[in-house]
Structures are given as C-alpha cells and as structure tokens.
Amino acid sequence: MKYLFLIFLMNLLHQYAGKSLRRDGSSLKSFEDIKNEIAGYTNIAKAIIDLAVHGKAQNRSYERLAVFTDTIGPRLSGSKNLEAAIKYMFSALQEDRLENVHLEPVKVPHWERGEEFAVMLEPRNHSIAILGLGNSIATPPEGITAEVIVVASFDELHKRAQEAKGKIVVYNEPFINYGETVQYRLQGAVEAAKVGAVASLIRSIASFSIHSPHTGEQSYQPDVPQIPTACISVEDAEMMSRMSLRGTKIVVHLRMGAKTYPDSLSFNTVAEIVGSKYPEQVVLVSGHLDSWDVGQGAMDDGGGAFISWEALSLIKDLGLRPKRTLRLVLWTGEEQGGVGAKQYYQLHKENISNFDIVMESDEGTFKPSGLGFAGSAEARDIVREIMTLLQPINVTAVYNTADGTDIAFWMRDGVPGASLQDDINKYFWFHHSQGDTMTVQDPNQMNLCAAVWAVVSYVIADMEDMLPR
Ligand SMILES: *[C@@H]1O[C@H](CO)[C@@H](O)[C@H](O)[C@H]1NC(C)=O
Ligand SMILES: *[C@@H]1O[C@H](CO)[C@@H](O)[C@H](O)[C@H]1NC(C)=O
Ligand SMILES: *[C@@H]1O[C@H](CO)[C@@H](O)[C@H](O)[C@H]1NC(C)=O
Ligand SMILES: *[C@@H]1O[C@H](CO)[C@@H](O)[C@H](O)[C@H]1NC(C)=O
Ligand SMILES: [Zn+2]
C-alpha cells in the first residue's frame, strides 16, 4: 500500500513525458523520447522489485508452487492429475481476483507408460533403470529379449547397419547441448527401426547423472516400423559401451506396457489484468502447466507457470493497471508437441496485430541473468532500455534469441518474443526425471525471476506504443 502514493506520483510525471508521439505514426518518436518514457518507470520498477524480493510477496510464487506440486504431483497430458491441476489453477486465479479467468478447450494426446522393466541378462544380471519415451509402443506382453548393439552416434549406427538387425540399439551419445543431443531421443527409435532393430534405449539427455533416466517426447515416422523405446541412465549407457568395446556380448530383456488412448479434453488456462486504454492489445506472459509423469514438474515448468502468475499478482497488488491487457496463459500439452499453444495460435492469430509481445519462461527459474529477446533491432533497443530498470537486482542483460515452444508460432510471424534467461547449469540434471521436484527450486531465485517478469511485462504493456516489429 505504501507504494501507491509513489506510483500515483510517477504516473502523473509520466503523463507529461513523451507527449510528442502520436500513435497514428504521423510523427516518429525519437529514441531519446522513448528512453525518457522508460526512465519514467524507474520508481514503479523499484516498487515491483521491493514487493517481490523484500516485501509482502517475498517467496509467494515459491510457496504457491510448493502447495500446488505437493498436492497435485506430476501432470502428464491426458492424466487425471493434469485435469486436477487445471481445476486448481482456475480456482486459484479467481481467488486471486484476476480478471477474465477462463479455460480454452484443447484436445491433447493421452499416453500412459504402464509398467515397465528392463534387466541385463548377459554378461551379468543387472537391473536397468528405464523410463519409456513419450508415445512409445509397448513390447509384447512377454517382453523382448535381444542382444545389444551400442553406438555413439547415428553415423556409427548407419556404418554398422548390418549388425543392428534383430538387436536392441543402445545409444551412448555424449551430451553436447540439449538442442543437439535431444535428436537421439526424438529420432532414435526411427533410426534404429530403419536398420531392423527391435527396440532402442537412449542414454538420457542429461548433463549430470546419479543413475536416473530422463524421459521426453519421441516420434515415429510413417512407413518406418514402430519399435518400443526408452531412456536409460548415463551410467548404464556408459557401462554397456565399455563392455561392448571390450567385445563382450550383452543381452537385455525389456518389458514395457505403454498404451496410447484417444486424445483427451484439456484446457489452456487464462487470466488477465484488462488494459485501461488499449484493452484489445495484449502482452502475453506464460508457462506450461503440463509436465512429464515423473517427479513433480516443479522446475519444468511449474516455476515458469508460477512466476507468470506472480507477475500479474504483483501488478494487481500494487494497484497498477497497464494501458494494454496483461494476459497470463498456462499452456496445456506442451511436453507432447506444444499442442495447447498450437491451438491457441490458430484460434487467436486473427488478432495477431494486437499482440505486443509473447513471453514464456520454460528453461528454469533459477538465478536470472536477463531476458532472451527476439524481434527487430529497433524493438531490441527499447527492450535493452527497459532492462536497465532491473539494475537494482542486477538483471539487465538482453540475449539474442528467445526460446519457448509455446510462443514459437507468434515469433515466427514477427511478434516480438521474450524468454527468461537464468542459470541453467543444473537444469538438465533434473529435467524430465524423478529429480524434478520442489527441492531444486529456491524461493530467493524465484522472487528475482518474478520481479524481472513483472517489470518487463508491465512496462511493455503500459508504454504508449506497442513494440515495433
Ligand atoms: C523466504 O525464503 C528465505 C529462504 O528460504 C527465508 O530465509 C525467508 O525467511 C523467507 N521469507 C518469508 C517471508 O517467508
Ligand atoms: C539372472 O536372472 C535370471 C532371471 O531373472 C535368473 O534365472 C538367473 O538365475 C540369474 N542369474 C544369476 C547368475 O544370478
Ligand atoms: C479478437 O479481438 C477482438 C477485439 O478485442 C475480440 O473481440 C475477439 O474476441 C478477438 N478474437 C479472438 C479469437 O480472440
Ligand atoms: C552483475 O551481473 C553481472 C553479470 O551477470 C556480474 O558479472 C556482476 O558481478 C554482477 N554485479 C554484482 C554487483 O552483483
Ligand atoms: Zn518445459
């Protein structure tokens, strides 16, 4: 409350800044005018930061996320848990007195892993930890028992294609970076099936491991036989690689009970602070509510979803109402192909000219370092200026690209996009594994992330002009 007077004052000052600009484009605002306009938000930014980091909202996004993930658990597309999560958020956003809280229906994939189990039979009995990959078919009920061929790359698989027939392909690809290495998870089964393999096991896409498998999406191709596929721990992949380099014969028994059901009804969850002057124009902040079916989905993407909610809560608590509508979208079906986001885009793209910026946080909510931004050079200069408002917490960097499956369609069509950049050093330790729990989240770090998200989204939503494209 003590901020209100300050904010009132700042708003007053703000009215008198940047008057030279007309929205009809008849006279171009100089960058100096824009800089002044942004500088006018210094005290509002401080108020947001104070509230999030030191004030009454300290730890709120963390505490909310803890209750949510401990209550609901992981939230796979098509699962009862995801349904419960959406109901939970629908009520929570209403209780938070946000506006236009509603659900937008989406059909999402419904795959269940069922029981799964793998054991090495030769050269010695050894239980192998596995997680079936999304969309995998089952093995026959009696399982598959076959000799293993270990390869380090698709190249090696292609060179040794003759040896792969009838075998289980084990990929022991080194972790280079997520984007590159994840190709083994996405296409490993297809490539193995092309050379006649009966199943494939993929070394988890993880930068560090304590014997945990990391699941994720994979897809089959038309005209290529579908074979069961799972991930294994880095440790087991490396051991089988060592064994095979010594010329040791390896035999594995694999049993998977996965099932794919008809698509199921789900929802994107939406809430707003309606704009005071240009309510039809939208600044979108987002994270995805679905997760894999292991751990708690606290990091991927509970953190991103909850700092996005927090951004609206902070702005509302300060009694602020930006000129444009600030819209929170909690996507469904991200993990299995960005299904919710795709439908949202198709439904709302008719209004694309009113989308000012699309923002998603889906790469962790660890210590933030800045903002990933995609857009024109002109828009980037403005965003750089906005980021100077975050000097009090030293999070001012602007990076060259923005990432986010759920905002990709809009960015492709030229809408400016932003993603939160944070310290992802440990992100792939936990990603898509049993290790993705509240234990890896940190309240102080989430406070900082929420402050960045709220300042950036508020200022962009409140500036007199939309970002140039
Ligand atoms: C927020 O979390 C930090 C770190 O756990 C703790 O020291 C602090 O007391 C918490 N603040 C509140 C208001 O709970
Ligand atoms: C290995 O496991 C199989 C089946 O689980 C069992 O029949 C066999 O006795 C075990 N071999 C050794 C050496 O323990
Ligand atoms: C597009 O924007 C108009 C004006 O704000 C609104 O009435 C309409 O519902 C929007 N359409 C969609 C599909 O969101
Ligand atoms: C601010 O952040 C930069 C870049 O992340 C870092 O190098 C610098 O040490 C930080 N400064 C302070 C005072 O924390
Ligand atoms: Zn994610």
UniProtKB/TrEMBL annotation:
Pfam families: Peptidase_M28. Residues 1-18 form the signal peptide. CDD domains: M28_Pgcp_like. Its main location: endoplasmic reticulum. Belongs to the peptidase M28 family. Homodimer. The monomeric form is inactive while the homodimer is active. GO terms for molecular function: carboxypeptidase activity; metal ion binding; metallodipeptidase activity. The keyword Transport does not apply. GO terms for biological process: peptide catabolic process; proteolysis; thyroid hormone generation. Residues 268-455 form the Peptidase M28 domain. It comes from Cyanistes caeruleus (Eurasian blue tit). This is Carboxypeptidase Q. The keyword Endoplasmic reticulum applies. GO terms for cellular component: endoplasmic reticulum; extracellular space; Golgi apparatus; lysosome. InterPro entries: CPQ, Peptidase_M28. It is found in: Endoplasmic reticulum; Golgi apparatus; Lysosome; Secreted. Carboxypeptidase that may play an important role in the hydrolysis of circulating peptides. Catalyzes the hydrolysis of dipeptides with unsubstituted terminals into amino acids. May play a role in the liberation of thyroxine hormone from its thyroglobulin (Tg) precursor. Keywords: Carboxypeptidase, Endoplasmic reticulum, Glycoprotein, Golgi apparatus, Hydrolase, Lysosome, Metal-binding, Metalloprotease, Protease, Secreted, Signal, Zinc, Zymogen. SUPFAM superfamilies: Zn-dependent exopeptidases.
